[in-house]
Amino acid sequence: MATFSFTTCTAVDNTSPRCTSSRLAQTLVRPSYVSTWREPPRASSSFKRLPRPDHLYVDPAGKCLFDKKYVYYGQRVNKTAAATSLKKKKAQKKVEKRLPVPDHIKGILVDDWENVTRNNQLVPLPHPHPVDQIINDYLEYERPSRDPESPHVDILEETMAGLKEYFEKSLSRILLYRFERPQYHEIRKEWEKTGEDGPKSVCDTYGAEHLCRLIVSLPELVAQTTMDQQSVSRLREEISKFTVWLGKNATKYFVSEYETPAQEYIDRARNI
């Protein structure tokens, strides 16, 4: 049996048997640093696992298919937010279609906007025909045409009461232009000074101009509620009748001239 030694050989005797056996021995010795075999770590996430053999990347029509588990969380949030926003916009568009505003009311509002924002003019307050009077006059006009035993009278009164409540809560928030806000604060101070017979609320002070601003804002306000289709249809019908009646009586309920405030008021309104 052949034995292997670790004897070094000289450069001259390269072909000697002893030198050959020494080189062979060096190649047969295993290094001590060779690591042993280890099992690879198991995949802890679905992102590390291969898809199933029957997984489809495209449908029969050639459209790409994506697994929801491979969609990043940020993409899921953005997709959900976009879908929610689109759903709200569609619902708002439906409400806008169901609450049409007559063209003559839109024309009045355009003139109203120009008078306040461009000409620096104001609606005279207290209004000669406030919202309370307008609604009461309309109820007196419309009630005789309704059957007292039918629910239409109740629907009419509930709609007008709701319109009045909306007006009281939304006037100072969304119905005033910036140029009108000092006037509103002055009116509130006057309410504290007047007696019981004087105007004490916005429905006793403001008139058809600001009421029409509410009417064109109703679609957005109603879109934020949980009204069903039947309620929206009733609201549309009642508001449409009311705007038609108000347009026919525009010369009575809308002011013919706006007032121009003092320069001190104009400077104060611009600094708001």
Automatic annotation (TrEMBL):
In the UniProt record, which is one GO cellular component term? NuA4 histone acetyltransferase complex
Q: Does the keyword Nucleus apply?
A: yes
Claim: Transcription is one of the keywords in the record: yes
GO terms, biological process: chromatin organization; DNA repair; regulation of DNA-templated transcription
Q: Where is the MRG domain?
A: 85-259
The record's section on InterPro entries has:
MRG (IPR008676), MRG_C_sf (IPR038217), MRG_dom (IPR026541)
UniProt keyword annotations, A-Z: Chromatin regulator, DNA damage, DNA repair, Nucleus, Transcription, Transcription regulation
**Where does this protein reside within or beyond the cell?**
Nucleus
The protein's job, in short, is:
Involved in deacetylation of histones, chromatin assembly and chromosome segregation. May act as a transcriptional oscillator, directing histone deacetylases to specific chromosomal domains. Component of the NuA4 histone acetyltransferase complex which is involved in transcriptional activation of selected genes principally by acetylation of nucleosomal histone H4 and H2A. The NuA4 complex is also involved in DNA repair.
Which family is this protein grouped under?
Belongs to the MRG family.
Quaternary structure, from the entry: Component of the NuA4 histone acetyltransferase complex.
Q: Per its record, how is this protein called by name?
A: Chromatin modification-related protein EAF3
**Which species is this record about?**
Verticillium longisporum (Verticillium dahliae var. longisporum)
